[in-house]
Amino acid sequence: MHPTRALAVAAAVAVALCAGTLSATPREPAAMAKTLAPSAQQLAQAAPEASRKLTGQAAMNALIGNTAVVTGPPGGKDVVWYFLPDGTVKGLENNSRNVQLATWKLDGEKLCFSSGGQKFGCFGIEVNGAGLILTNTDGKSASGTILKGNARNM
Fold first, then answer.
1. Does the residue 153 lie in any domain?
2. What is the pLDDT of residues 10-23, one digit of tens each?
């Protein structure tokens, strides 16, 4: 994938977080079936199993080797990220089959994404069981679910 495309996708997610249009707003069942929302089976296998609040490195440890699904409201962006231990993140948005590549890094307590050497977003990260909360620098949050392994086969 071209680094410019990865940067555009990541920037769109960062803008959606900043604008408050990326969250875990419930949808109608028919609409949910058309999104990247996790299936009932995937939710049953959600990772990690422990139900305690994790931040910073402990939260990243829960994400590494797993898939994060963050669902936006109608008209917003749905994103899926698979975090590899080598600092690579593979991503999909809005039911796309085109896997985007970027890098992730923990900067203090913040999860930062970059592509082509350009940083395009850092977020506070909190994991509680299989729940995920990402918070941008303006304090706006998006929620998601962590699924075990490469749940979307990226």
1. no
2. 444 444 444 444 44
